[in-house]
Amino acid sequence: MIYWILTCLVVLTATFFIVINMKAFGAVPKGERLKRIRQSKLYRRRQFQNISHTPSIAEGYKMWKVTYDFFLGKKDPLLKPLKEIPSVYTDLRSLDRNTDVFIWLGHSSYYLQVDGVSFLIDPVLSLYGSPFKYFNKAFKGSDIYKPEDIPDLDYLVITHDHFDHLDYPTVKSIRVRTGMAIIPLGVGAHLERWGYTGEKLIEEEWGTEVELKNNMKIVFTPARHFSGRRIKQNDTLWSSYVLITPTKKIFLGGDSGYDAHFKMIGDQYGPFDYAILENGQYGEAWRYIHTLPEDVIQAAIDIQAKRIIPVHAAKFALALHPWNEPLQKITAFGAEKGLHILTPMIGEVVDLNQPDLQFTAWWED
């Protein structure tokens, strides 16, 4: 019996190490990159830290209960859409490069073109938002874009290294069409393992301002979240970004719980013409690391956003709320505050030079 138990342990251990060393899991920061990490003021007690204390589970909740409910608890009947969600396929390759547009690709992935420069943010264009096939499958209708649909890019922008924001097959596929990758400190280890050279990486920490082409600037700014796609969490940084172009200021939010950093960013860099903010995959237990819809509204007010584009919904079921609840709530709360919430379908063109665009409540169809 003891030999059987030992054999099982050996097999399980070997399987674990084989899996964790698959390319999809990226790499651990080493060498000069690890030296930079250890010298960062944001890195303490062997991991990156948020500005405020940030427990993974809010007070009054138990990790075991939250985990049980997520995997084994009764699910809302609308956790996933009952039919294919509406979407519009726009050929990104045929877009006039002199137009200023935003095109949502589902979840937190979007294509941004402004003042003649192209950006692709957090692209997850696989059918599954995980390192394994057949787990966390995209909703029908939300999966209309594939990596081969992406045109030549000036900049790939990554907010953090979670699988639903940094997708190995997508990022590997577009490597030869990507000019530079803008990534938080430590995330370059993953990209280098996937074939990106150090010369193509702009890898920095909060507070760093980087000059881009066409007289643009991007600023690495705080977010309240966490990172990790291997065993150890928070060995790479997470970030939001401020994009300043000759004609616009745009806030690229990334994943974040609500905190004082939104007002800090607004006071220093606002007001913003557009703020692209996380709104979805939330729960009361996770409010420190994912904004609730009412928190998204306050964050938008704090950063002084003229127009808000909510993302992080309508493609994967990563939380327990109905799939369309984030859009229902953000539009209702936004109307109460008199905010301009833009809610395009996946693939629908948002002309950034038409400030009064209106969109249908497509999630109610």
How would you describe this structure to a colleague?
The protein has helices at 2-20, 31-39, 63-71, 168-173, 188-193, 261-269, 293-302, 325-337, and strands at residues 43-44, 47-48, 101-106, 109-114, 117-121, 153-157, 178-184, 201-204, 209-212, 216-221, 240-244, 249-252, 274-278, 307-311, 340-341, 349-351. By secondary structure, the protein is α/β, with parallel strands linked by helices. A seven-stranded mixed sheet has the order 8-7-6-5-4-3-16, with no helix packed on it. A seven-stranded mixed sheet has the order 9-10-11-12-13-14-15. The protein has a two-stranded antiparallel ribbon with strand order 1-2. The radius of gyration is 20 Å and the shape is globular. The model has no long low-confidence stretch (mean pLDDT 94).
The counted number of beta strands is: 16
Instruction: Describe the main β-sheet briefly.
Output: 7 strands, mixed
Mean pLDDT across residues: 94
Overall, the morphology is globular
Q: How much helicity do the residues have?
A: 10-25%
Distance between the terminal alpha carbons, to the nearest Å? 59 Å
| Strand order in the largest sheet | 8-7-6-5-4-3-16
Supply Rg: 20 Å
Order of helices and strands: HHEEHEEEEHEHEEEEEHEHEHEE
**How many individual helices?**
8
Instruction: Assess the beta-strand content as a share of residues.
Output: 15-25%
The helix-and-strand class reads alpha/beta
Low-confidence stretches: none
